[in-house]
Specification:
With 149 residues, the protein is an all-alpha fold. It is 68% helix and 0% strand.
Length: 149
């Protein structure tokens, strides 16, 4: 359950759903069956705290790359939600969190993340551009060519 005023302030989609003559507005229920509960819990965290922090189990030292992959995968799943709810602030936060995860763990984007953001990502391609730029930065001269084109 959300406070409509808080959710409406950050999401034009929720605002429209709550303040229209639709079934959702009358019932005071917005159904998003394609959104996983865990993903929506992260959205609720964003609404009330202006931040998103996803927790995955702590791996042993030799599994740090797996931790990065798990964090990136959860953030990538969350990345698709802001485009649905028209919440640019959350989208920017998720992109920043994925970048920070990659930098902290010294890893690039995982195949699962790339697949998620290209198949389910929003039309505004911030994370897609960042992924291409990261790979290009790893390729030397060829990377310079890719970034220019």
């Amino acid at each position: 359950m959300l406070h409509a005023t808080i959710a409406s302030a950050k999401s034009p989609f929720i605002n429209a759903a709550c303040n229209s003559r639709t079934k959702e507005a009358k019932e005071k229920v917005i159904r998003l069956p394609e959104v996983r509960p865990k993903t929506f819990e992260s959205y609720i965290q964003w609404l009330y705290n202006d931040t998103v922090h996803i927790v995955v189990p702590d791996p042993s030292k030799d599994q740090e790359v797996n931790r990065s992959a798990a964090l990136q995968a959860e953030y990538a799943k969350l990345y698709t939600l802001p485009s649905m709810l028209l919440d640019a602030g959350l989208q920017n936060q998720v992109v920043d969190n994925i970048k920070d995860t990659m930098l902290l763990h010294k890893t690039g984007p995982t195949n699962a993340v790339i697949k998620q953001i290209y198949e389910h990502g929003p039309a505004e391609r911030t994370l897609q551009r960042y992924t291409i730029d990261w790979y290009a930065s790893q390729c030397g001269e060829m990377g310079d060519f890719l970034q220019k084109h």
